[in-house]
# Entry
Amino acid sequence: MGKAQKKTGKGRLDKYYKLAKEQGYRARSAFKLIQLNKKFAFLESARCCVDLCAAPGGWLQVASKYMPANSVIIGVDLVPIKPIPRVVTFTTDITTIQCRNLIRNELKDWKADVILHDGAPNVGTAWVQDAYSQSELVLMSLKLAVEFLLKGGTFVTKVFRSADYNNLLWVFSQLFGKVEATKPPSSRNVSAEIFVVCREFLAPKHIDPKFLDPKHVFKDLTLSAASGHDKGSSANNAHENVFMPEKRRRKRDGYDDGDLTLFRKVAAGDFIRSSEPINVLGLANRIVFESEEERGWLGLSITTHDIKANCDDLKVLGKGDFKALLKWRLALREELGLDVRAKPTEELTETAEMTEIVDEDQQIQEELERLKAEAAAKAKRERRRANEIKTKAIQRLQLQMTAPLDIGLEQNDVSLKMGQEDIFDLTDAQRGLHREGSVARLIGDEEASGGSEGEREDESAMVEILDSDQERERKLSALEVELDGMYNAYQEKLNERDSKRRVKEARRKRGLLEEWNGIGSTNKDTSDEESNEDGSWEKMEARKEMDDDSSSEEESNEGFAVGQKRLRRKPADPPSNKKAKFIDLYERPPPPSRAAQVWFSRDVFKGLKGHDMDEDHESNDIELASNPVEIQSQHSGRESGRETDDFETVPQYDNGSDTEMWDADGENLVNEHMAHVEKYGLSVAEAVTLAQQLVNRKTTKTHLINDGFTRYSLNSKDDLPIWFLDDESKYYKPNIPVTKEAVVALRARQRALDARPIKKIAEAKGRKKLRAARRLEKAMKKAETVDATKDMTESEKAKQIEALMKKGASKAKRKETKVIVAKGGYKGIKGRPKGVKGRYTMVDARMRKEVQSRKRREKGKRRGR
Ligand SMILES: C[S@@+](CC[C@H](N)C(=O)[O-])C[C@H]1O[C@@H](n2cnc3c(N)ncnc32)[C@H](O)[C@@H]1O
# Structure
């Protein structure tokens, strides 16, 4: 694959795609297994194979083809796999115990010779699944492999080059005799995927559970290499992670990998004493007052009722609430003597005047020195941070975990943070803010070297002391600025994600008919193929590439990392200018992370926009002015953003208001659905499947209604946080099967619609126009008559003419003719019956019945045709 691949959708129809189509494989990824097997030959001798994450079934087809007849092949995936001869499939999550039990039941006492894993977390499929990273999925598959693999067996897995890569390899090497990482030619160069073939399973009698625990395996490997005793190799790190979890190492950025606990409590004391309060707020769900001392704080006047309520559920707080909590923390720290508030300067000066006569110049000099020392300490602190990030980046580079260009960008990479965006991620935003300043130095100020140990000690002392009111104010406003930055970043991310979701939805609807067959019979829908065969990672990669290529407008709001690229691209900038830009970037409200924006753009924050955000928000508006699209979406909300997008708009139900969001029964939605169905008929394969089942008497209405009452419908929504309900409404849905017949029916309807003669439509339109022109002509004639009348005032004429023209311009209503059944005295009598207004026609009862039965017969004939 020497040539660079095209980035367009068509460009992705490479030779393996075509080959897969030709040879009847459901996904081009089938060739990855073919090539791996060609190199390691593990399928030919295998009698039993389990494919984890197997949909749409490309690998299963290969296994079925290459393995001996009568061998057992099992495929598992979150999504159903269309039947393949000789293959048993299960639809379940490989990380669950249910999956293990299903495989166990199927295999009984057997063990597998080969376990395959080609999984990639499905972004957007389920909230909880999103939280799993690729590496964790690999570890979960390894967990199944060690249980079901025969001694000497082979485990093939897909891993991505990331910080966890080496840790995974190390774990594999502990369990298998031979471990080899390879990238088959059919794996796209743009994809970070690598396949690891682990052979000769050692089948140890006892396997340390830590080997399979993401918490232990994926701990940080940044520092030991940096400290010098293990440069370039991560094996020792992994060793330490697995065997010495008690050793305190620095946390990875972001959430602990493998820490899947969704609810976290934090002691109030920890929050108050923490040097990273925003981090604490970002990670925890609740602040608790459990110790004696903490309970005492509840009685303080500064701990108002609001503060207590805020501590109770951090996940539903708005920006103002967070500010209040941070202020409370500062106040409490002063109360506890953790922060020393220095006496006002004037007071000091006065005392000095009383005790001794101090030279005024000397006083100024001292003050200046104090300020200078303060500034120097701050600068040291920043330098140290910059240095840490630089070391980390270089070390990653050494470990070949990142390309040089990725330095500083990695944390902004959506693909590396899949699934975390919904979780409250202030930490991430804060990290981003620090990094932005630091990375600026990494590029623009190479000579800025790190501080010594001594400096670090200085710094920790500095952190604890607030020198003056001014300092305190500055601290507070810095926190506020940080929060604002995070809010903007979250909002940006939400917008971005929302637009991606809409594009995806639009594509899905368009490609609904093609989706059914994996690689469909047409070339049209490449995106489906993509999603089937390469999982979400490649999609992310591809999107990243497209983002790179896309307009600079997008870049302007991509956060500092992208801005940094732009700076690099402008060598013409004089150095001083460049420095000024960095300083500017550092002092301005820092460009926010997207995660922060997503968080703050939820509905709970809507009310805050006008009040809490006031000036900050305005300034953000100005900053964003370079991007008209952004501005529009900011000012007119999500819905209007949709209108401006350059793709087919999928009808969306307005969920702008809270009442809609809390519409527990979804009545509005149902009504709108019903209206849509009445107007356009069934347009979704699931619905057609159910309708066909009804018609063919395979199910009954009662059955369907009963089926509607599932675990999805009966969950109580009381007291659940909004973010949770929001996510549940998106992802926690029943999986309704779709039949091929339904898809065929839908296709047929689409074809019929397409085939509707254009000529007839044009004729009907022409007739309509003609009628309208006649009506207008008639109205004009009448108007002329009115105008010619002499015994009317001008205003009367004007009124009448206006009414006539209005009537002429509007569509003529069809006059309804009432059918009156002549009964009793009216039978045979001519004349208007009593109480009947407008047009009517008199019929006798017999005639009406005859007409009705004739119509029924005609209708029946038409259906029978
Ligand atoms: C790249 S595709 C596999 C393609 C497959 N090897 C083939 O050749 O057809 C990745 C699959 O992983 C599945 N997957 C992701 N997370 C999973 C999980 N937790 N449990 C089961 N399957 C999962 C997805 O549904 C997706 O079908």
